[in-house]
Amino acid sequence: MSPLSYDRYCTEIVEQTHRLRACLSGADMTVPVLSCPGWNVGQLLRHLGGGHRWVEETVRTRASQPLPDDDFRDLSPYTREGPDVLGPWLEEGAARLAATFREAGPDAKVWTPLPGGTVSFFARRFAHETLMHRADATLALGSEFTVEEDVALDALDEWMELGSLPQMFEFHPERRKLLGPGRTLHFHATDTGPGAAAEWVVDLTGDTLTWRRAHEKAAVAVRGPLADLLLVIYGRRHVRSEDIEIIGDEELLDFWLESVAFG
Fold first, then answer.
1. Rounded CA gap, 181 and 14, in Å?
2. DSSP 8-state class, residue 138
3. What confidence tens digit (pLDDT) does each residue in 84-138 have?
4. 13-24 residue pLDDT tens
5. Secondary structure tally for the chain: helices H, strands E
6. Which of 3, 37, 58, 130 has minimal Cβ neighbours within 10 Å of its Cβ?
7. What is the structure's pLDDT at 15?
8. What domains can be seen in the chain, in order of their start residue?
9. Rg of the chain over CA atoms, in angstroms?
10. Strand ranges (DSSP E) for the chain?
11. At what angle do helices 6-22 and 41-60 cross, to 10 degrees?
12. How far apart are CA 36 and CA 248, in angstroms?
């Protein structure tokens, strides 16, 4: 399945931020975010909004090296803020980021943390970064998380693509322990429409981690609704829940999920 369009990524950054703000009305920003240990909801929003502004400056200036990012890494000053301040600030940054992306275009050259070197990398990455942090806040505040099918499919594809890059063994050499004969995982979304082909195979049997969209027998199979699989694979929801069916080697599944945790 092809990735979403560049324009769609720009739209989703704004839309996901708008939906995130909508769940903040009357909410307690000091509620802990279990999927982001050490942060409360307000700090999570400062991290996301700071990330939007960091990428916006990176793209607008066509930076050739990474800009300082301490302002959205150290969140200790932001422990007690209200939604009336955070909501508008968050949406303003998202709108500015999307506008800068559209002005630059997908093929503009810029520093990126992984191979690519064009603005299209950041557009896709921050569409899904915004989506998953909306999930973090939504779940922390006790609301239901929903996501459009095509967005969830692309978010999972991007996760698989990034996690399979050879450079990941340089960043996380401990992940080599995942490799071994017979080690395959199959994820199958049970609620997608015709033609969605919402199945992924993670193959750990070679010299590196690979993945493919396929329906294949594997050492362990995980079946459930697409949104739940998205949350499980991104480490936002526990794999053992009433909506998820696990067939096969559960120890391999646990080992893989623990080893490839994504921030």
1. 44
2. H
3. 999 999 999 999 999 999 999 999 999 999 888 999 999 999 999 999 999 999 9
4. 999 999 999 999
5. 8, 5
6. 37
7. 98
8. 6-146 (1.20.120.450), 167-259 (3.30.1050.10)
9. 19
10. 184-189, 199-203, 210-212, 220-224, 245-248
11. 150
12. 29
Q: Residue 140: which of 39, 241, 48, 12 has the closest Cα? A: 39
HSE of 223 in the Cβ direction (CA atoms, 13 Å)? Answer: 10
Contact 203/211 with Cβ under 8 angstroms?
A: yes
- pLDDT band for position 262 (50/70/90)? low
Among candidates 58, 158, 71, which has minimal Cα distance to 113? 58
Q: What type of residue sits at position 170?
A: E
CA distance 210 to 208: 6
Check residue 148 and give its pLDDT.
Answer: 97
Query: What's the CA gap between 100 and 10, in Å, rounded?
Result: 9
Question: Are the C-beta atoms of 220 and 252 separated by less than 8 Å?
Answer: yes
